[in-house]
Amino acid sequence: MATQSGLGEPRGPWFISPDLEPGGAGRPDAGAYGPLAAARGARWRMALLATLAVVAISATSGAIAGDWASSQEKPGPAASAAAPVPADMVAAAAAAVPGVVSITVNGSGGTATGSGFALDDVQHVVTNDHIIARGNGSSVMVQTPDGRQMAAQVVGRDPSSDIAVLRVPPSAGLAPLPLAKPGATRVGEPVLAVGSPLGLPGTVTAGIVSALDRQVKLGNSRHSAVQTDASINPGNSGGPLVNARGEVVGVNTAIATIDGSGSIGIGFAIPIEQVQQVADTIIGKGG
């Protein structure tokens, strides 16, 4: 069977919820190790199965009631039609994809891959610092939306915020993405995660903003993150989370997983207010 090789740190830095265990210890998003962790996993799975059983019973009851109610009503002509994709999300995807790149870093620390997006007209690219750090920033290459490969310069890094800024040659011709206004993001609004999950550049996944100011531990630092249920998978790290207007509301950085699995609909992005502040500081120092 072919081995899947994708772009990106599989889960970004480890995500640990401060509320999962006493003292904020939490559990890493990858599978834990040892008998104690196994016991915890077993208890968690039993609780999950019990919850799913309740959901299944509720769903069955709801289905019976729904069948009875539907028998009393005359179905409309479009009852079985699939809901169309909102036009504003289609336009947002079309506007965002031309400004998003795939990133590969090769160095003594190994190879790391992820995504990034154009910040301005002088071809500064924002990405996650953990992508650059894993390869020690020795050799950074980007792939543009039209498939061209070119070297990128590391302008600067900020490990505490997990933000790094690159600069690519003017020939890249990347379209800078507009940034959402501070405080404008709302819970429930539709968003798109754009990047190169599993080595598939220009991929867009849709969801909503699930929560704001979510306190999570990413790597060794605590962050106030934007939570989303848009699918974020290996390769999305560093890519933009954009709203229906095509504005960047955050930088995708990590996901929560169950026993090391892929996306389960809980992802986290660094808020754009923080991203912009850190990026401006890095650019001001590094040019």
Tell me what you see in this structure.
By secondary structure, the protein is an alpha+beta fold. Among the domains are: 29 residues; 76 residues, Trypsin-like serine proteases (Thrombin, subunit H); 90 residues, Trypsin-like serine proteases (Thrombin, subunit H, Beta Barrel), CATH 2.40.10. The chain has a seven-stranded antiparallel sheet. The protein is globular, with a radius of gyration of 21 Å. The protein starts with 14 loop residues before the first strand and ends with a helix.
Low-confidence stretches: 1-11, 18-45, 47-82
Q: Give me the number of helical elements.
A: 4
**Biggest sheet: strand arrangement:** 6-5-2-3-4-8-7
Q: What structural category characterises the helix and strand content?
A: alpha+beta
Q: Rg from C-alpha positions?
A: 21 Å
| CATH topology title of the domain at 190-279 | Thrombin, subunit H
What's the architecture of the domain at 190-279 in CATH terms?
Beta Barrel
Helical content (DSSP H or I, runs of 4+): 10-25%
CATH H-level homologous superfamily name of the domain at 190-279: Trypsin-like serine proteases
Strand segment count: 14
What is the arithmetic mean of pLDDT?
Answer: 76
